[in-house]
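Help!! Second protein's tokens look totally different from the first
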Amino acid sequence: MKDGFIKVAACTPEIQVADVDFNVDKIIEQIEKCREEGVKIAVFPELCVTGYTCQDLFFQNALLDKAMEGVVKIAKATADSDMLVAVGVPVRANGKLYNCGAVIQGGEVRAFIPKTHLPNYNEFYEARHFAPYRGECAAIDLRKYGQLDFMPSMEQTVFVCDEIPELVVGFELCEDLWVADPVSNYLAKAGATLICNLSASDEVIGKDSYRRQLVSNQSARLVAGYIYCSAGDGESTQDMVFSGHNIIAENGSILAESRLFENGITISEIDFKKLTFERRKISTYPASAEWDYSSKSTGFLDKENISIERFSLDMVETALTRKFAKTPFIPSNQAERNERCHLILQMQSHGLMKRIAHTHSKTVVIGISGGLDSTLALLVCVMAMDLLKRPHTDIVAVTMPCFGTTKRTRSNAEILCEELGVTFREVDISKAVLQHFEDIGHDYNDHSVVFENGQARERTKVLMNIANQVCGMVVGTGDLSELALGWATYNGDHMSMYGVNASIPKTLVRHIVQYYGDTCTSDKLRDVLYDILDTPVSPELLPTDDSGTEMTQKTEDLVGPYELHDFFLYYGIRWGFEPSKVRRLARYAFEGDYSDETIDKWLKTFYRRFFSQQFKRSCLPDGAKIGSVTLSPRGDWRMPSDAVAKLWLEDIEK
């Protein structure tokens, strides 16, 4: 359970209708397999002990007695395990019959969770056999079935883990999710971070897609983990067919899903620290019920009287099987990625369009280097002008060659501007920079930060003054990854009048430019975009080789691979993970790509630079939020510029 991960399972065993002994044996077999896999919470289908499709056999005491005997047998099979298990079973109480989930741990039936909403339409006739739960409770006497030491209650209950306070487990049964006001809404308000659904959802055309969306959306709405476990092969096919569709979701993301009509076990790991972080961050998320964890009942909560049981888990490290994308900002699916890139370009260009219209700017001015960031910013400028129905010549693209500019980037910048039809200007800043060095007494051969930043600030001065010349505004090109690392010259490329890339991480910039190239109609434009994509990332502030073709400064050699830094940014800043947890996930995701030592080196660099460079982010120019991460001081991120990184660096060392 280290780092908040809990291994969970949705289990669909083979069953035979009304054959309790057979069903119990199959359930126990799957429990044993779950134990071998390190599962801590296992959920089985609705009424799986008897079979969901017993119909009027549910009126037979012989079946109901055998079901209770079977549940106790399942419980005894868990005596040497800390796994929390839920199985579906019919339960007699208060003179009625209830459709329940039996919650089992450590050799005992701990509680029976009754179903609230009974479907009695179309193919479903549950109200013929079962009573709906309306807040009543009952003690279930299992002594004659072999459980002697503990008398479980039948009532709505959440289970709170002693060792992991973030783990609070609630249960609902099938239709309880499908109604307008799901039971899980109240469980989440009571603090449940994991909802387990014992279901017997029959299959009809299109229902699997709806079911998947339903589970995903509910887990997102509740900011919770969700285990949906459904009945499968073995249920009666007299009038229905069951597919065993199992789904494990976390805050809107499907972590694991079974194939239809294949009984078995679906396993993944849910990150409960991640869920509780997000709940704390969302100010509109309701506070949990103020529980007195030493007592049993919460008292009346909205419409539900929710009882509390405590349970314990052995603290072991959870082996991870779920996937963590190396590039979390980029969809893995090509079609989804293209759709995302198209949407981002629309958002960027509409944001810039509004700013141009509001300021009545006659032009926009942009520094164009032949690199990725300025290329994307220029494409956005072109799209904004198209939205305004203005000519591309209202874009003034300025290339400012100096000591580190290569022939390749200079040529690409010119071809790009020519193909886009923008106004192209070249201002060689070499003489101005040399004069500046002379003015301040800096030796040209001293290639320190003064040498580099002198060029960056000269370029910004040129852009600002040209903007004054042409009644324009300067469009910034810096991206989110550079802002996170502080890889920008203060009051140099750090400054503009509107930053269109400020919320775009470097790894995503590449894909957006790739998408534009793939979909444009000009072969020459496509070729130059592809060549820009093949050019190493560099600020080109150190002199080239003697031929002027080879750059001597490559950003990723200096600050580290951007794919690592974007990974650190997403999990360390967006989700607030501890550096040690970020490192664990990075080692898992990038296994075989980077050594542990390399990951540690650049992780330390990330946190050291992230803290020391906050002063640059504290005075950023405007720029629209595009994705889930932004470092604007007016948006998602507020941080003192003099905060100390010691705690985070020490966590890495541990």
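Here's the second one for comparison:
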Amino acid sequence: MRSPVLPLTWHLARSSGRRGLQSQLLAAGAAAVGSFLMLLMIAASLGAGARADHTTWRTPDAVPAKKATAIQATTVTHVRGEPVTVVNLAQLPGRAATSAPPGLDGFPKRGEVYVSPALADLLHKLPAGQLADRFPKTTFYGTIGAAGLASPDELVAVVGRASGDAAVSKAAGNQNYYDEDLTGRALVSGFSSTRPSVFTGTDQGTVLLGVVLLAMPVVVLASAAGRLGAARREQQLAALRLAGATPRQILGMTAVEAAGVGAAGALAGGLAYIALLPALAELPYGVGGWYPGQLWVGPAWFAAVVLAVTALITVSAVTTLRQVAVSPLGVAQQADPRRTRAIRMVLFVAVLLCIWISTGGDGQLKTRQMLVLLALFYGAFWLFGPWVVDRLGRIVARRARTPATLLAARRLSDDPRAVWRTVSGLVLVGFVAGFFSVSTLGSEGPSHRGQVAVITANAADARHAAAEARTKLRRAGVTATVTVTSEDAYDSLLGGVDGVIAQVSGGQERIDTAVTALTPLGSGRFPFTQEYVSASDDTVTARVTTVSTATLVLSFLVAAASAGLTAAANVLDRRRVYGLLRLAGAPLDVLDRARTRETVIPLAVLAGGTTAMGAFGAMQLNKAAGTTINSSGAVELVICLAVGMLTVLAAITGSRPLLRRVTAGAAQTAD
């Protein structure tokens, strides 16, 4: 016998009218947004890892001298404050030919210079005295292909040298702690290193942190989409259940309808992601924009996200019908207040204790452990939220002095899960705001702005180099004070290393000109500036700042969409209740104030708690990283909370015309 599930589902969908169509369109739109953002998050994470892999070849891994075929000396110089990675390569005489580095069509010969497209543009744009004169004079400039670059905006140069050149000598290697991860020299036989550049090594971990923090608001949005039209669906299916439909048929019809709507929306979001890949690749992160291929997640991830969003919406819709299957008469009469149990609080406290114990020790947490704890916290708070809403409703009901407050309290205690779904996105965003507002890593390292430093072999060479430096800077038109440092002078950019310090007067152009003018004095090393000294700390700080800003913006947008979607859905689902209240004489303003209070009350209590917990999590992260707390984050936090509250009010206000429309002609709609 043919199953009646599909025909009945199609019939109910067609007969639901304009109200049902509105719910389905809203659900599909929410599924599209959720699918798009999930694909974008996965793409950023996978792309960051791929970019890091494209920089590993620049880190020289030493091999025994007998097996070596070339010398590799990698260093970093800066122009206009941006890092330029320079790889010096020299073929050892009498050894086997060395394979070509990634992105090059051959191993560079002496005097050949290969540059990335972005660096080539910069070489043509800037005067030679600011950049080009740092490299050997040559008539051959090759281009580094995408295989050797992390980003189309990355500044990279590969210079062919003779094995006896100073640029690949031992003096060009690591000489002080500032050189860590920035300058290195080794005998090599190829380019098989697995250590990424300092400018890309932390990208993926930072992105993953943002992904975990953003994932829950996206899940909330998709879950809200699955529950759209829940009241309408419950009433229809309860009637069918009373007419003889089995629980399996009821759940089957719900699953089919939700899966169809969810799949259509998720696929639309996925197609939008594919169509926008070229535009998304232009968004800068770290070393610059992306190659579009780096942001393509592949067919497997694409299908997995579409299926996951569809499944999430389907499960969310099906779970609303538990009471329909068990007690259809109670649902039809709307006689079942949905209370919560105290076990939710017990589980929440247990999770907090687990997190406290895990983060309270002196040992540093790994990135994966931190992400697991964040996910665990989110899950626990999702259980705890409805319980708090339920208790707030009972407390407010006992102290209510106005009809609007009493109506709001009744709503809080009658269906705390529905109220929690309205505010959950913004409540959990409060955790993100609290976390990132104080987690911007600070650094208390030395600052020597305007200084250009040249390392020398000893104090005698430093004195000779100082005289040459004054002459070269004067010829270049740079005003600077040149001093000699020694091993006992730590209050300078060289930090106790023999060399020359030029305190340059003027802006960034003068500093770049000074670096170029002093390059011949470096015995194969580029002069360096404050950007070189603080590169590692600045890179981490910049990545965290970028991810935090993007996560906050996207989280607020998603939470606002979720709140607005749920507020509109609640009006549609409760139109019968609102109609009866209007017939009983309740003014529209009272109903509107009740809607506002049933949202603002739990939001104020719960968002305050999650914000404090987010700030605590940020303190633990800063402690593990050995960095200071961003004291200016308090202002940012206040702004975030204010924006969140205004977002809620805007979502409620946006559904006010819908409330007016569904309560018009209450005698006809409140049957």
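Reply: Different proteins will give different token patterns, so don't panic. Strands lie at 70-79, 82-91, 113-115, 141-143, 156-161, 184-188, 451-455, 480-485, 499-504.
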